[in-house]
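Late entry, zinc ion complex.
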Amino acid sequence: MAIKFSGEKYQCPCEGDIGQPNRIHGWKCAACGEYLQIYAEDRSAKQVIERVSVSDVKKGDLLVQDGSPLLSANEVLDVRLENGAYRIALREFGVLKKVSTDKEFNRILGSW
Ligand SMILES: [Zn+2]
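Prediction complete; structure with ligand written out below:
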């Protein structure tokens, strides 16, 4: 699981505004299977995020660490699967080792 921010609103391109998310598994839309767009607020920061499975994390993604403010995202420099766990190198942070395969991350899409 990844942390949730207060006052989240959920949208999907296929349905527009949705109240309570209708999800299939994880944070994907039940209708189209795409990740829901989450409009999150944290203090004065407003960012659109996706809550993605670690298996969908790619080089260049901006991830918010659990417990960090919404504005302090780190860029993924490298991600690889090693011995059944993920190893993720983050700019200005260092390396997350032995990340379990069911971990989710908040990935920044942009501000709103
Ligand atoms: Zn959808």
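Strands lie at 9-12, 16-18, 37-42, 45-53, 62-64, 73-82, 85-90, 94-99, 104-111. Will revisit in the morning.
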